[in-house]
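**Protein record**
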Amino acid sequence: MPTRLFPISYDFFKALVAIVLIILLWWLWPGTEPPTLNAAVDPSGAVTLDGKAQSGKTVQIAITDASGKVSRHSVTADDSGRWLTAVELEPGTYTAVASIGSSSSDAIRFTVPKPAQLAPLSIDPVPSPTSSPLTLSGRAEPGHPLLFFVDGRPVPTDPPITAGPDGRWSLRLEAPPGGHTIYVAYADAPERVSDPLTIEVRPPAPVVEETVKTAPAAPEEPAETEAEAEAETEIETEAPTPEPSPGQAYVVQEGDWLSKLAEEYLGDAARYPEIREATNARAAKDDSFATIEDDHLIYPGEKIWIPAP
């Protein structure tokens, strides 16, 4: 009887090798990469959650409040691996975790602030058209510093303007000729803003000189040659003005944020960078548009550009 080289049967040995290979493959096989999670809380209390995940994967988000109550949300990562969703939460402290299957992000903690208990802001009507400088006045909570915006841009005030004990404030303001939109907000609660005031500022009256001096007659210049006339015509010919990009102007209202506007006008909250890019492109040519430096910070009264869907 021949002697066996192994104390076990050959079939058992093959099965054992197969099991070991399966365990190694399972151990080395790359699993699902956990998603990332960020939270941005607007001063008005609106919460935007975003992060990165594998393209096409559905991200499950669990939000736990201080009492232990859990609310769940889901969103799908786009082709670039980005995901974003807006949620409405009551004031309080929350913990959130994003997961795909058994892979989870690190837990993050954020707080939704309570609305400030402040008196409503107002700006008194101003005759329009008017001349610059103009004096603005209105009502606010006494003692709270105020922020002023003209066409969405802050107006520096030093020292800060506050309402007096009677709740009245006033500001002397220089404004260039043209149409302007003005509003006021609380510095310690920028989500609380007044209704916008729209005014028209007249250009300054021309200065009329009392004495008119007659300039000496200029000597006759030699007639232009035909070549010189053609060269001047080419220089004076202006390039055609490019057609503006399609879309619409929009004045930011209280409670707006970019992802919300992208969802409403573009049909996808994740397209909010398109609004930022279009607005900044407009602002480079037209100073009535706001310049957006932070996707999470836009203010009521700012003029932005929403591209066509």
The chain has a mean pLDDT of 82. The radius of gyration is 32 Å. The chain is about 15% helix and 35% strand.
